[in-house]
Amino acid sequence: MAKRIALAYSGGLDTSCIVPWLKENIPGAEVVCVVGDVGQGSDELAGVEKKAKDSGAVECHVVDLKTEFVDEFVMPTMIAGAIYEGRYLLGTAIARPVLARGQVNVARKTGCTALAHGCTGKGNDQVRFESAYAALAPEMEIIAPWRMDRWKLSGRMAMLDYLKARGIPTTASATKIYSRDRNLWHISHEGGAIEDPWNAPPDDAWMLTVDPVKAPDRPEDVTVAFAKGRPVSLNGKTLAGWEIIQILNEIAGAHGVGRIDLVENRRVGMKSRGLYETPGGTVIVEALRAIEELVLDRETRHYREHLGLTFAELVYDGRWFTPLREALWVCAEKIAEKLDGEIVVRLFKGTATPVKRKSPHSLYAEKMVSFEGEEVYSQKDAGGFIRLLSLPERIRALKDRGQAR
């Protein structure tokens, strides 16, 4: 009986090799390729079904995941304030659970009993995919070729030779410098000169953003409106979340917004250096934080920051389908109930700066902070407040001097 295996397929060099490798190394294997469209663009998706079948797949399914990717994964992560190690907007990490879920759904529909991926044994993605598999399809076998003894394709040239020997066409070449992962939210770059942290980011690595030095000399303002923490319109036009991101990627990218050069701590224990471009996402995050400044009280906002740190680690580590992540989202969603309003963000030379903000739920009271008039807030009241607030310090100082018992 044939063993049907659902492979998370991108059409790149690794997964192009994995299709024939599975057939050669697993008796009776039939490979069903699953391509998740998370907004990586037509260039990557063009001809992917033919490419999969030319590699030996019996079927190839391209699944449109853009809407659920943005609505169910990206937006909750941003509303929770999840930013890994203070800088990374989690573009790759957020996409893995929705891709894994799409793969599992196709696997069940096509009678597959095993799930496979092309992640190496050094990276985060193997953890993310397999943790999702464990939560969504614990009964299915997991096949990770890069970690198997029979996998001997340790380098780019070896994989190219492998395909050539089998007459399998590929658009990959020996001259490719960078390893990239792209979706609607971002694009990442690794490899080549990027691997040495003493090297400045190579100019030819960036794809979505212009060099801020070469960006326009005049700023551009964009207006983003939010409802319960989710962007719902751009410059006065109501749009779906994924459409807002797509448009902002072009507008903000032209101003050099959203570049990050980061040495991060991988879940598997090593440090890696990557370049990330998230132009539209950077604008949305800055605007959302500006809404929070107006609406959230001090204690709630500070707790949201704490929540965001834990949420970011869970997403980065591939723990999306866990009770803790789900519980934290319930909390974050409650906090976001009044995050409504409009923010004007100014784009200029690589920066995205909120310059105007308004919300029907704003706690900002101009009369309170103004030096004019004291009808609502009497400055004299602050004296008693400070005395009570500093009482522990006062008692400690008196004790140290022997003046209090």
List the helices and strands and how they pair.
Layout: E1 3-8, H1 13-25, E2 29-37, H2 42-45, H3 48-54, E3 59-64, H4 66-79, H5 91-109, E4 114-116, H6 125-136, E5 141-143, H7 156-165, E6 179-182, E7 187-190, E8 220-227, E9 230-234, E10 237-238, H8 241-253, E11 259-265, E12 271-277, H9 279-295, H10 298-316, H11 323-335, E13 341-348, E14 351-358, H12 366-369, H13 381-389, H14 391-400
Parallel strand pairs: 1-2, 1-4, 2-3, 4-5
Antiparallel strand pairs: 6-7, 7-12, 8-9, 8-13, 9-10, 11-12, 13-14
Model description:
- This protein is α/β, with parallel strands linked by helices.
- It folds into three domains: 3-176, Rossmann fold, CATH 3.40.50; 180-296 and 339-358, Alpha-Beta Complex (Argininosuccinate synthetase, chain A, domain 2); 366-400, no CATH class.
- Helices cover 40% and strands 20% of the residues.
- β6 and β7 (187-190) form a beta hairpin.
Quick rundown:
The protein folds into three domains: about 170 residues, Rossmann fold; about 140 residues, Argininosuccinate synthetase, chain A, domain 2, CATH 3.90.1260.10; about 35 residues, no CATH class. About 40% of the residues lie in helices and about 20% in strands.
